[in-house]
UniProtKB/TrEMBL annotation, chain A:
This is Fe-S cluster assembly protein SufD. Residues 38-73 have a biased composition (Basic and acidic residues). The gene is sufD. InterPro entries: Fe-S_cluster_assembly_SufBD, SUF_FeS_clus_asmbl_SufBD_core, SUF_FeS_clus_asmbl_SufBD_sf, SUF_FeS_clus_asmbl_SufD. Belongs to the iron-sulfur cluster assembly SufBD family. Residues 1-73 are annotated as: Disordered. One of its GO terms (biological process) is iron-sulfur cluster assembly. NCBIfam families: sufD (TIGR01981). Residues 16-32 have a biased composition (Low complexity). SUPFAM superfamilies: Stabilizer of iron transporter SufD. It comes from Brachybacterium endophyticum. Residues 183-408 form the SUF system FeS cluster assembly SufBD core domain.
TrEMBL record, chain B:
Gene3D superfamilies: P-loop containing nucleotide triphosphate hydrolases. Belongs to the ABC transporter superfamily. Ycf16 family. This is Fe-S cluster assembly ATPase SufC. Residues 4-249 form the ABC transporter domain. SMART domains: AAA (SM00382). Keywords: ATP-binding, Nucleotide-binding. InterPro entries: AAA+_ATPase, ABC_transporter-like_ATP-bd, FeS-cluster_ATPase_SufC, P-loop_NTPase.
Length: 438, 252
């Protein structure tokens, strides 16, 4: 694989494939990357550091700071995105336009737009619901775009899954959202909560087809341990814009995993905030875009408290004409976040011609008193020479691709603690490969 | 007993200046147990010969035939050729990130044999072959060719040859860039394979040095896309003394 390591934004693959997002892509306003820190080098763990490009700010207020984006529950305060908006410039707005409409969920008598199945582990209370403003709903998530605002306003009763104080739940909560009609709109707001010193895993599985505007709100209580696995296993015609917003309490730990394999166009914006010292946040993502599929993942880690640690790693594979992925990783270390340690990584593997991956890491630092900060982004191409090498050893083409893709995703998949999901995921990746080989 | 037969092989490559003929009628027959040294100056088409036989998509065969035990190799895909018993040790082996040597070797062995190797003997075979090539066992867990030195890459190629046990092996400038120690280790590996499997070898080289370690039965001088002269090992001695000038003058 020819690998290029870059500072700042990177695009790889077919430049023509970019046209679907309109004229705005190409100019990449990024923060000046002035200082290369040595802090990260001695950590001795985590991914190998290829590159550091870090913007150190001197604490002067600036509109560019990711943390200052407007937030509100009022739909009227948001306008429809255009390709001139930095945060939407990669997104195919025409394809996703139904999700910028302020529409109710299209349930019909005895025929809901989405079927929800929830199973709750032993030791947890039954599923509850929360009206807007009813605590803890709204403690973590305040919408920052129109789709999220509509999803919130149009969900009267948010599902509330809760691990009680001190509970150690061995089995995961499972929530399956199965879309029943690709033409119908659905809105969802889900609140996941681990109370003080509890431990729980939440698996959200999205299947079938719909046009979903979704909010996932994670309230991670002090000293608790939450794992969230969100699977986007949609059919080929689903549209999905999701906002995941977590607030990590004192000494709490959140492992947040996003896996996007299905859907026509999927955008997941995953925001993680530290509200108190000692928190730890791990953000993992895996995606596989195939022909004419658009998958966008944005993360924002807001270090607003001292002595917190965050680690983000997203990996994506792309194959087929018009396969498109976007990864934008924003990390903000605020003035008060002394002792922060953070690292973010994105890797893409372009398997065929006509696919395109964009990768934009941004690191904003407002204090010098940190443990370490770094980022890396690289896109590699599985090229003809690699294929020839493997085939010259008797390995058929499909098997060769499988070998490379498996190897690429292996370390991420190993970090998913639910064995049957690990297995299902490996199987799904095989399917993706098989499908686009035929 | 295997036989690779190349008859009147012509091949072209696309260049910015247009289609260029590189192979201009090659005739060559290699049988099990035989070692044929193909020697020639840079740019004479030696590597093109190797890659054309292996099926690299960059080269187009415009006429001629290549058969292995009577089967038409040119009709086969790259991986089918390998499964038919052909092996190419490459001059510049490519990196394959994310795929460990151990996984790669097992996958290749399974593909070539049509069945997964018995685990116990396989692990022992790999370990033994690596020891013979003075390769540290940690190589097994490294990604294929990633961060390997030039010598390590060549040893890794010969390791594959020893484990996959081809009928006919083409070694494309396996000796280039090796120091004497590495050259000896690599040559020992080739000689071991010759002894244990009776493999037929096409040894492509620019330099005569490797012939001190691997004894050829036949030497072919390759110039301007054709075999200009052939003979026994004594021809190599003559090349050592005179170089390629004589042939190049004739080609002009």
């Amino acid at each position: 694989m020819t690998s290029t390591d870059v500072k700042g934004p990177e695009s790889a693959g077919d430049p023509v494939a970019n046209e679907v997002v309109g004229g705005a892509a190409g100019a990449a306003p990024v923060l000046a990357q002035e200082v290369i820190s040595e802090e990260d080098r001695g950590r001795g763990k985590g991914p190998k550091l290829e590159d550091e490009g870090i913007a150190v700010k001197d604490g002067k207020p600036s509109a560019a700071t990711r943390g200052e984006r407007h937030r509100s529950f009022d739909v009227a305060e948001f306008s429809r995105p255009t390709s001139k908006n930095e945060e939407w410039r990669f997104t195919p707005l025409r394809v996703l336009s139904p999700l910028f409409e302020d529409l109710a969920t299209e349930d019909r008598e005895g025929d809901p737009a989405v079927d929800y199945q929830v199973s709750v582990p032993e030791g947890a209370p039954e599923v509850g619901t929360l009206a807007p403003g009813q605590s803890p709903r709204g403690e973590a998530l305040v919408p920052e775009d129109i789709t999220s605002a509509v999803a919130s306003a149009r969900t009267d009763q948010a599902l509330h899954l809760r691990a009680p104080r001190n509970a150690e739940l061995a089995e995961p909560f499972r929530l399956t959202a199965h879309g029943r009609d690709a033409e119908r709109r659905s809105n969802a707001h889900i609140v996941l909560q681990t109370e003080e010193s509890s431990t729980a895993t939440f698996v959200l599985d999205h299947t079938g087809s719909t046009r979903m505007a979704e909010n996932v709100e994670m309230v991670v209580g002090d000293n608790s341990q939450m794992t969230v696995i969100s699977l986007q296993n949609w059919e080929d015609d689903a549209l999905h814009i999701a906002t995941h917003h977590s607030k990590v309490g004192r000494d709490a730990r959140l492992k947040h995993i996003v896996v996007s394999l299905g859907g026509r166009a999927v955008r997941v914006n995953a925001i993680g905030e530290f509200s108190a010292p000692g928190g730890e946040l791990e953000k993992l993502g895996l995606y596989f875009a195939d022909e004419k599929q658009f998958l966008e993942h944005r993360i924002f880690v807001d270090h607003a408290a001292p002595n917190c640690t965050s680690n983000s790693a997203y990996k994506g594979a792309l194959q087929g004409s018009g396969a498109r992925s976007v990864w934008v990783g924003d990390v903000l270390i605020r003035r008060e976040a002394e002792g922060t340690s953070t690292y973010e990584l994105n890797r893409n593997l372009v398997l065929t011609e006509g696919a395109r991956a964009d990768s934009v890491p941004n690191l904003e630092i407002e204090t010098g008193e940190i443990e370490g900060a770094g980022h890396a982004a690289a896109t590699g191409r599985f090229d003809d020479e690699q294929l020839f090498y493997l085939r010259a050893r008797g390995i058929p083409e499909l098997e060769a691709r499988r070998l490379v893709v498996r190897g690429f995703f292996a370390e991420l998949i190993q970090q998913i603690d639910v064995p049957e999901i690990r297995q299902a995921l490996s199987d799904s990746i095989e399917d993706e490969l098989q499908r686009s080989m035929n | 007993m295997s036989v690779l037969e190349i008859h009147d092989l012509h091949a072209t490559v696309e260049t910015p200046e247009g289609t260029k003929e590189i192979l201009k009628g090659v005739d060559l027959t290699i049988r099990s147990g035989e070692t044929h040294a193909i020697m020639g100056p840079n740019g004479s088409g030696k590597s093109t010969l190797a890659y054309s036989i292996a099926g690299h998509p960059k080269y187009e065969i415009t006429s001629g035939t290549v058969t292995l035990d009577g089967e038409d190799l040119l009709e086969m895909s790259v991986d089918e050729r390998a499964r038919a018993g052909l092996f190419l040790a490459m001059q510049y082996p490519v990196e394959v990130p994310g795929v460990t040597v151990s996984n790669f070797l097992r996958t290749a062995k399974t593909a070539v044999d049509g069945a997964a190797p018995a685990l116990r003997t396989w692990v022992k075979d790999v370990r033994g072959a690596m020891d013979n090539l003075k390769m540290d066992q940690v190589f097994a867990e490294r990604n294929v060719n990633e961060g390997f030195s030039g010598g390590e890459k060549k040893r890794h190629e010969i390791l594959q040859m020893e484990l996959l046990k081809p009928n006919i092996a083409i070694l494309d400038e396996t000796d280039s860039g090796l120091d004497v120690d590495a050259l000896r280790i690599v040559s020992d590996g080739v000689n071991r394979a010759k002894e244990s499997t009776d493999v037929g070898v096409m040894l492509i080289t620019h330099y005569t040095r490797i012939l001190n370690y691997i004894k050829p039965d036949f030497v072919h001088v390759f110039v301007n896309g054709q075999i200009a002269e052939q003979g026994g090992p004594e021809l190599a001695d003559r090349l050592e003394a005179e170089g390629y000038e004589r042939y190049l003058a004739g080609a002009k």
